[in-house]
Amino acid sequence: MTGFVRAGRFLGCDAPYEQAAWVLFGVPFDGTASFQPGSRFGPPRIREASWNLETYSPRLGRDLAAAAVHDAGDLELPLGNVAASLAAAEAAARRFLADGKRWIALGGEHLVTLPLVRAALERWPDLVVAHFDAHADLRDTYLGERLSHATVLRRVWELVGDGRLFQFGIRSGTAEEWAFAAAHARTFPDAVVEPLRAARAAWAGRPVYVTFDVDVIDPAFLPGTGTPEPGGITAGEAFEAAALFRDVEVVGIDVVETMPLHDTSQRTALVAAKLVREFALAVAGR
Ligand code: MN
Ligand code: MN
């Protein structure tokens, strides 16, 4: 596929493009990282770590070998050019939609969610957004910029409006962000599994876009991320949350902020890879 490079393939995601219902692809962009850059190296490390796993998930009773997922590789991006990088991600998403596919995108930093949601909204104008994160990401500007990993959900809210942004596991934000969330979003601090069960019932078949910032997981399990925030959910709770999407009309997923440069024990990449496997099986598995 032109415009992509690929070194390796995610475990079990070997369906031909034409036959795949879901496409896995990397968006190796970390242009606004404010604390630790390097999430551009996330997708290849997640792929590599995936080969330590089984294709079968006992939690879901499903096997990736029977799932129609194609790994398209990583987008080739003009790093340093934020606007052009986001435009390339949006163009890729639109191309997958035109071909009747949905996607699991691997970040990269969280700003990559914005062009992906924008593309998905064109097809599903009434979608809701399920956002997992340590951080609210609801600033209007950060360091003077409107486009940042720290503002991305504020930009998404501008697209979807009140009551359609569900935030899970949040444990960090400014006073202004918490006030904004109380007025405009449905924000569940600290926990993910129980609030997700309740939200899932409220969605009742509506299309859902899932954006999962891996820093919602405690840095004890996942130290390699752009802005680690002490505390947080366990890796097991993250896998359970992913599995809960098996009964949801998911239209797209991104898993962002895996930053492997400080991941000397490999645990970050392993947790992220298992999370991606559970998401893939929840939405595309049989
Ligand atoms: Mn975060
Ligand atoms: Mn985030």
Widest sheet, order of strands: 1-5-2-6-11-10-7-8-9
Strand content: 15-25%
Uncertain residue ranges? none
Q: What does the main sheet amount to?
A: 9 strands, mixed
Can you count the helices? 8
Helical proportion? Answer: 25-40%
Distance between the termini: 26 Å
Name of the CATH first level: Alpha Beta
Number of domains: 1
The CATH topology assignment is Arginase, Chain A
Architecture blueprint of SSEs:
Blueprint: E1 4-5, E2 22-27, H1 42-50, E3 56-57, E4 62-63, E5 69-75, H2 82-98, E6 102-107, H3 113-123, E7 128-132, H4 152-160, E8 165-170, H5 175-184, E9 186-189, H6 193-203, E10 207-213, H7 235-243, E11 249-256, H8 267-284
Parallel strand pairs: 2-5, 2-6, 6-11, 7-8, 7-10, 8-9, 10-11
Antiparallel strand pairs: 1-5, 3-4
Bound molecules: manganese (II) ion (2 copies).
